[in-house]
Amino acid sequence: MAQNISMKRTSMEIIHEILKLKGRKKTDIMYRTALTYPQTIRYLELLKSKGLISVMQDAKGHDVFEATEKGRQVLEHLSAVIGALTLPDDPV
Fold this sequence. Notes:
With 92 residues, the protein is mainly alpha-helical. The protein has one domain (11-83): Arc Repressor Mutant, subunit A (Orthogonal Bundle), CATH 1.10.10. It has helices at residues 11-20, 26-33, 37-49, 69-85; strands spanning 53-57, 63-67. Helix 1 packs across helix 4 (69-85) and helix 2 (26-33) packs across helix 3 (37-49).
């Protein structure tokens, strides 16, 4: 039986989860990543400031977040690193 080293996610894992989501509203991102509202805002602001996500408006005028080209490149690299470092029986 493998030991679970830590249940807490790293910032990189959370960023990876957010970048994987495509065309999502803030609340949807919050629920899908299991973050609190303040945490969600903090991560979205960080990713916007780094040019990793962009904000668009949907047909109803709601903010919709999506990875930029730079964000997709970072996502690709994070996916490779996480894949290389995941233990065989770790749920991903």
